[in-house]
Design brief:
There is one protein chain. The strands form four sheets. A five-stranded antiparallel beta sheet has the order 1-2-3-12-9, with helices on one face. The protein has a five-stranded antiparallel beta sheet with strand order 4-5-6-7-8, with no helix packed on it. The protein is elongated, with a radius of gyration of 25 Å. The chain is 17% helix and 20% strand. The chain is an alpha+beta fold and 356 residues long. The longest helix is centred in the C-terminal third of the chain and has 18 residues, at 324-341. The chain has five helices and 16 strands.
């Protein structure tokens, strides 16, 4: 991923008050390695390039300093907490290998070394369930029956001074070692402490949602909601799937991406959204943004001009979420007007391909 040279501050309400730099008293450094004792069961392991900026996952490395002992000699580094014992051979000068680094998890007696297979990992999630019918492989998770897990943060993006993400310097190692034994609750809690706590979701999200990939008309959906009400079927959300926008475009767009209301199906979007709100329902519009903004869109000229393009060229405006100028125009021209109509949130869909 490449970043443009332009830098734009993001709106203040999107900025996070990061605390990415750990207390110096929690850091043990020896030559090309840096170890940070984030908690008595969570260690950060760095080799080569030391990164102080917040990464996509880890925002709050400045944590209360747990009790630990460290000893650094010309040959070794030893760090011991109530739960972990790290040993590193400084003389190897080979990064982190099974021969120079080990961490003992006292709760289970397990000894971890780089390269150990996470055979007992309890796993996490998967990127998409599209085309899945039955079993699918899952990524590694934070918790393991072995009592340890490792998160490799070496290649994630970092936040710059403008609050924008950008690539970090390549070549370094940046690992987080979770040594929680079977105390899974504390493991998850400490992860939230350093990555940022998740806010409580609105209560209406927990209700029943209606969503169907179908070319409904405004009249169809209106009658459907009335039928639900007549039969005392409770719903809190009505999703308007992709046919809310034009899908027959007459140009190179496949029709999956779109931002222009299909007035044949929805002659009065504001009236329909008002109807949903009167019935106590929230609503979202389905988006497939990967193909950008083509010249059939009502907002094409505005987007082209804001991105320094000639609207008469009819060249599609590429979707580039890495460009701050594009992102600002994208929200202001395409999203905010629909939010003013009453759209409550957005369903970002179909971004599994390489084009995104």
């Amino acid at each position: 991923m490449s970043m443009p040279h332009r830098q734009v501050d993001i709106p203040a309400h999107f900025k996070v008050a990061f605390e990415p730099v750990a207390d110096p008293a929690a850091i043990v450094q020896a030559g090309n390695v840096r170890f940070t004792v984030l908690t008595d069961r969570l260690l950060r392991l760095e080799y080569g390039n030391f990164e102080n900026r917040a990464s996509q996952a880890f925002w709050f490395r400045h944590q209360p300093i747990p009790e630990f002992r460290s000893q650094v000699t010309d040959n070794t580094v030893d760090i011991e907490t109530a739960y972990l014992h790290l040993h590193y051979d400084v003389t190897s000068k080979q990064g982190f290998t099974p021969d120079n680094l080990s961490i003992t998890v006292k709760a289970t007696g397990a000894v971890w070394r780089p390269g150990d297979e996470p055979e007992d990992n309890l796993l996490g999630t998967t990127r998409t369930l599209d085309y899945i019918n039955g079993y699918t492989a899952l990524s590694e998770g934070l918790m393991s029956r072995s009592g340890w897990s490792v998160v490799d943060d070496s290649a994630t993006l970092v936040f710059n001074e403008h609050g924008w993400i950008e690539p970090r310097d390549p070549g370094g190692i940046d690992w987080y070692f979770f040594g929680y034994g079977h105390d899974y609750k504390t493991c998850l809690g400490d992860y939230c402490r350093i990555s940022g706590e998740m806010p409580l979701i609105p209560r209406w999200i927990l209700g029943n949602w209606w969503s169907r990939y179908w070319a409904y008309t405004q009249q169809d959906l209106t009658q459907l909601i009335r039928d639900f009400e007549h039969h005392s079927l409770p719903f809190s959300v009505c999703i308007i799937d992709m046919d809310w926008h034009l899908t027959e475009t007459g140009n190179d767009s496949t029709g999956w991406t779109g931002y222009t209301w299909n007035r044949d199906l929805f002659p009065d979007p504001e009236e329909f959204i008002d109807f949903l709100h009167q019935k106590g329902l929230r609503t979202a519009l389905n988006l497939h943004p990967a193909e950008g903004i083509h010249d059939h869109e009502e907002q094409y000229a505005l987007m082209a001009e804001r991105l320094g393009m000639d609207p008469h060229s009819r060249t599609p405006v590429a979707f580039n979420i890495t460009d701050p100028e594009f992102v600002r125009a994208y929200f202001e021209e395409l999203h905010h007007p629909n939010e003013e109509l009453g759209v409550d949130f957005w369903w970002i869909d179909w971004q599994q391909g390489l084009s995104c």
